[in-house]
């Protein structure tokens, strides 16, 4: 256990001081009664209660004070809390082809809008990660329930160079809970991944069927024109990555951004034809039991979460327990007052 304000623990010295003050006041009341009351009426003046009837309420009050003073230091404890281990990784294409203006104002802005809508529709307990990809995939936000962090990262996406869909798939798989130590396919070189902790081999204890459910949502124009391994074409690399996702029980959902027939884009004073290739995205989704959508509706985006499901597991989580302790102190005070009212017909 740790404390946000540990200096306030010094306030606990008030506990014995308060006990001494209360004991002194009780002794003073007894001496005053003995000094001024007639000896024959002393019993009526003092009406002494049993020791248990006096001490139990007082002990509960002092305990409540101690709990409140302890809570003032804002203790933080590791408590087992339910956590939804189901997660989705958003993979957004940031290659130059996403600057094509066949969607208003361009493909990247359309992808950004879809990603933000997806985050807004997500159930609060579902973890969402974010990666952008061009020549390589870059982890921007590990899976989290912090929606504001995701929105900020999405708003700051920048255009890069070419497109490697294989990099997006493999990096997305390794971002998902339980799959961090999974080794990427041998055919793909490690330099394509932004995750630096590549293991020499996948630990034998990792079993795909026991992994929490995970999915990747790729938002792209489908152009796939680069591979990290010069000996493997971009299409072959994507096929390898697709098998990798299926092996580790990860569904890949894809969203196409662009228009049939492609677009002409001007870059550095020259015109370039930028294709829109939905078939690549359709094949990727089909072979991983995912789905491809174009111009997705809110219902289509919600379907990703519905098919993902929920897996609740108890995990130790750092949690401030001040409110919990304050509630305990309140219960103790109420109990002390009830005992006083019952035994001595008064509430201190």
Summarize the structure.
By secondary structure, the protein is α/β, with parallel strands linked by helices.
Question: How would you characterize the overall build of this protein?
Answer:
It comes from Calidithermus roseus. Keywords: Cell membrane, Membrane, Transmembrane, Transmembrane helix. This is VWFA-related Acidobacterial domain protein. There is one protein chain. This protein has about 350 residues and is of the alpha/beta class. It folds into two domains: about 1-80 and about 320-345, no CATH class; about 85-310, Rossmann fold. Helix content is about 40%, strand content about 20%. It is built from ten helices and eleven strands. The protein has helices at about 15-35, 40-45, 50-70, 105-120, 145-155, 165-175, 235-245, 280-285, 300-310, 320-345; strands spanning about 1-5, 75-85, 85-95, 125-135, 135-145, 215-220, 250-255, 265, 270-275, 290-295, 310-320. The strands form three sheets. It has a six-stranded mixed beta sheet, with helices on both faces. It has a three-stranded antiparallel beta sheet with strand order 1-2-11. α4 (about 105-120) links the parallel β3 and β4 (about 125-135). It is elongated. The model has no long low-confidence stretch (mean pLDDT about 85).
Give the termini distance in whole angstroms: 34 Å
Shape: elongated
The number of distinct β-strands equals 11
**Strand portion, in percent?**
15-25%
Q: What number is the mean pLDDT? A: 84
Radius of gyration: 33 Å
Percent range for helical residues? 40-55%
CATH architecture of the largest domain: 3-Layer(aba) Sandwich
* SS element count, helices: 10
Unreliable sequence segments:
none
Task: Determine and state the CATH class of the largest domain.
Answer: Alpha Beta
> Which structural category fits the helices and strands?
alpha/beta
Number of structurally distinct domains: 2
Main beta-sheet strand count, sense and barrel state = 6 strands, mixed
Spatial ordering of strands, largest sheet = 5-4-3-6-7-10
The CATH superfamily label of the largest domain reads: von Willebrand factor, type A domain
CATH topology of the largest domain: Rossmann fold
Order of H and E elements: EHHHEEHEEHHEHEEEHEHEH
């Amino acid at each position: 256990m740790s404390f946000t304000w540990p200096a306030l623990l010094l306030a606990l010295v008030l506990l014995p001081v308060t006990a001494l003050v209360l004991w002194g006041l009780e002794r003073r009341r007894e001496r005053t009664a003995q000094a001024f009351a007639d000896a024959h009426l002393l019993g009526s003046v003092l009406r002494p209660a049993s020791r248990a009837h006096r001490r139990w309420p007082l002990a509960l009050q002092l305990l409540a004070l101690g709990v409140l003073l302890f809570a003032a230091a804002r203790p933080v404890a590791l408590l087992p809390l339910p956590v939804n281990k189901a997660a989705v990784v958003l993979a957004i294409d940031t290659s130059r082809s996403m600057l094509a203006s066949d969607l208003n104002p361009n493909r990247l802005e359309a992808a950004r809008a879809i990603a933000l809508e997806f985050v807004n529709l997500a159930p609060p307990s579902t973890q969402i990660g974010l990666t952008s990809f061009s020549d390589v995939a870059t982890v921007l936000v590990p899976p989290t329930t912090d929606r504001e962090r995701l929105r900020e990262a999405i708003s700051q996406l920048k255009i890069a160079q070419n497109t490697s869909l294989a990099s997006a798939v493999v990096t997305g798989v390794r971002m998902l809970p339980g799959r961090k130590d999974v080794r990427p396919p041998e055919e793909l070189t490690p330099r394509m991944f932004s995750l630096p902790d590549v293991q020499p081999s996948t630990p034998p204890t990792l079993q795909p069927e026991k992994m929490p459910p995970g999915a990747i949502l790729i938002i792209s124009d489908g152009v796939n024109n680069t591979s990290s391994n010069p000996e493997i074409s971009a299409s072959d690399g994507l096929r390898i990555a697709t098998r990798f996702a299926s092996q580790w029980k990860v569904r890949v959902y894809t969203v196409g951004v662009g228009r049939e027939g492609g677009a002409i884009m001007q870059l550095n004073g020259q015109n370039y034809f930028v294709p829109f290739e939905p078939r690549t995205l359709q094949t990727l989704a089909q072979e991983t039991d995912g789905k491809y959508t174009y111009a997705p509706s809110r219902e289509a985006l919600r379907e990703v979460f519905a098919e993902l499901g929920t897996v609740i597991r108890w995990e130790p989580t750092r949690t401030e327990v001040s409110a919990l302790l304050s509630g305990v102190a309140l219960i103790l005070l109420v109990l002390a007052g009830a005992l006083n009212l019952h035994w001595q017909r008064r509430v201190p």
